[in-house]
Specification:
Layout (H helix, E strand, L loop, with lengths): L5 H8 L5 H19 L11 H16 L8 H9 L9 H20 L11 H24 L4 H14 L4 E4 L2 E4 L6 H12 L4 E2 H7 L4 H11 L7 E3 L4 E4 L1 H10 L8
Antiparallel strand pairs: 1-2, 3-5, 4-5
Helix pairs in contact: 1-2, 2-3, 2-6, 3-4, 3-5, 5-6, 6-7
Length: 260
């Protein structure tokens, strides 16, 4: 199975979406997710306003057939809520998405700075709330415009995000972890995160991990052991991350997903 990347997702949306808007939408969504996964949730950096504006223009274009790449967020919303103009998409679905996008769009400008506790600031909670709203909006947009069910849309997004690992490069058929400071177990975790739900076979891990065969075998034995349970071997021999593996990667290896 081919790895899903930004362009693959765009191709699934065009048509009916305009190519430029689709590219903007996917790029902005992945950018927000990457910052969140890397625990970069400062208000000035993690802002869903641009995502909201892009998706608003997508909805306006699909509903009015008028392509306006610079149309204001508020103007897009007014058209969706206007009972006196023709509409091409399901208005109830569009209005629901706009309700969520409006909160995201205005969130940072209206939210005051406060601290819930000395160790758990509003920045983290705000970012988490905003990202869940952005994710929901993106899944709904995929469900409507990709002409697929909601579960399929959610799986597609999950795959897209798992492949978006800055330190992993794909050069034609070669997959390379572009860091030199990872332990064998960490390199395999990063590779399997990149592989997503498809996973990698032992042969593929041997091909992509720049380790000798005994080191790879030892690392897999450790990761699949009852003590760690970070990786599981499926019936067809492919290895995939477990939920524990994803949790460990997010909490312990997030900084190492970046390029050095």
């Amino acid at each position: 199975m081919a790895l899903i990347d930004n362009q693959t997702m765009v191709k699934r949306l065009v048509p009916p979406l305009d190519l430029f808007l689709a590219e903007q939408l996917v790029e902005e969504f992945v950018k927000l997710e990457r910052r969140y996964i890397l625990r970069d949730w400062e208000p000035a950096e993690l802002d869903g306003g641009r995502f909201s504006e892009i998706l608003a223009r997508v909805l306006y274009h699909q509903d009015s057939s008028n392509l306006d790449l610079a149309r204001d967020f508020g103007d897009c919303g007014k058209y969706i809520h206007n009972d006196n103009v023709p509409h091409a998409i399901n208005r109830e679905e569009a209005k629901m998405i706009f309700m969520v996008l409006t909160v995201v769009h205005k969130f940072r400008s209206k939210r005051g700075v406060c601290h819930v506790s000395p160790t758990y600031t509003a920045n983290h909670m705000d970012a988490r709330y905003m990202m869940e709203a952005v994710r929901w909006s993106m899944v709904e947009a995929l469900r409507i415009f990709w002409r697929n069910d909601r579960d399929a849309a959610a799986r597609a997004i999950s795959e897209l995000l798992r492949f978006d690992v800055p330190c992993v490069g794909r050069f034609e058929e070669a997959v390379v972890v572009q860091r030199t400071d990872l332990r064998p177990e960490e390199e395999l975790l990063v590779l399997l995160h990149h592989a997503g739900e498809s996973g990698f076979s032992r042969r593929e891990l041997g091909k992509y991990a720049m380790r000798n065969p005994p080191a790879i075998t030892k690392a897999l034995d450790s990761l699949t052991s009852p003590m760690q349970r970070a990786v599981v071997c499926l019936a067809d021999g492919r290895f995939v991350l477990t939920d524990l593996g994803h949790k460990y990667l997010r909490e312990q290896l997030a900084a190492k997903l970046l390029l050095e």
